[in-house]
Specification:
Blueprint lengths: L1 E4 L2 E4 L4 H6 L2 E6 L6 E6 L9 E7 L2 E8 L7 E8 L3 E4 L5 E11 L1 H4 L3 E4 L5 E5 L7 E5 L2 E6 L3 E5 L5 E6 L1
Length: 167
């Protein structure tokens, strides 16, 4: 997001991982000294093989950035803020803005392996990180079984290390 103060832009950057895991960015703008006029804009970073676009719809600024061409793991992020595009920031009167974000990461391609260690040797339930795919279970370094389903349910022994990988 860009905030312009007398034509000098200030940038707030948010990384893709944070946009995927934390859907809100709260900003507080505070003028020190004299107040000034603010102009908001959302701009997707360019380069690195990304596709981006931005626009405004009914007072809501929107922007998207995606990496989908020539990449192993397609990702995208979208952000929106509903606020006046231009306003005056007065000294001593903070303005709070909320930026809503949504990210998409193909977890089935992004997660290569998952590991756990059983502390007490009880039943283990894991949501399948690779939906619709079979999962190889390695117990203490030895391939033991193949499981499938939305949730993987396994008996464990105390101290046992399990690794899961897509088949």
């Amino acid at each position: 997001m860009t905030v312009a103060n007398h034509g000098v832009p200030f940038h707030v950057e948010q990384d893709l991982y944070t946009a995927i895991t934390a859907p809100m960015l709260e900003l507080e703008l505070v003028a020190q000294g004299e107040g000034f006029d603010v102009e908001l804009d959302l701009e997707p970073m360019e380069g690195g093989g990304s596709n981006g676009c931005r626009g405004e719809d009914g007072g809501t600024l929107r922007m998207t950035r995606s990496f989908e061409d020539d990449v192993d793991i397609p990702t995208s992020v979208a952000a929106a803020i509903k606020a006046p595009r231009r306003f005056r920031l007065e000294a001593g009167k903070p303005v709070r803005l909320s930026l809503a974000m949504r990210g998409r990461l193909d977890a089935a391609k992004a997660v290569g392996e998952v590991g756990i260690r059983s502390e007490r040797g009880r039943r283990c339930v894991v949501e399948n990180p690779w939906p619709g795919r079979e999962v190889v279970v390695v117990r203490d370094g030895v391939a033991a079984e193949t499981v499938s389903g939305k949730r993987l349910v396994l008996a464990t022994c105390a101290g046992e290390e399990l690794r899961f990988a897509p088949r």
